[in-house]
Amino acid sequence: MTPAQWLYLVLADAILxxxxxxxxxxxxxxxxxxxxxxxxxxxxRNIWFRIAHLAAIGVVAAESVxxxxxxxxxxxxxxxxxxxxxxxxQGSFIQHWLHQVMFFDVRDSVLMMIxxxxxxxxxxxxxxxxxxxxxxxxxxxxxxxxxx
Length: 148
Known about the structure:
Layout: H1 3-39, H2 47-66, H3 71-83, H4 93-102, H5 108-128
C-alpha cells in the first residue's frame, strides 16, 4: 500500500468514526432525554442540546425523504475507492466492524420510515420533556428571591 492509499484509508476511518458518533448522538440522545427525565438530570433539558439533537435527526430524515445520500457516507466511500482494496476486510478493521453495527441490508423505504418515526419521537420529546433555558442567578440572593 502506498503512503497516499494509507492516508485515504485513515481519512475514511476518521469519517466513519465521526459518522458513528453522529448516529450514537441521535440514538443515545433520545434515551438520555427519557432516562434524564426519570432521574432528574438537568442537562437533558438544556435547550442547545435538545435543538442540536432534533436538528441532527431532522437532517437524517430530510435526506432520506428527499433521496439524498449522507455526505459522510459519500466521502467515506470515495476515500475507500481511492485507497484501493486490501486486507482481509475490503477496508480496515474499523470499517469492517463499524459497518456491521451501523448499516443494515434493508430497503430504503424501511429506513426512511425508521428515520421519520425516530424524528417524531424526538419531536414529541420536546413537548413531553420540554427543554428549558438556564436561569441566571442574581449574586447574593436565594433562589426564592429571584423575580420570575
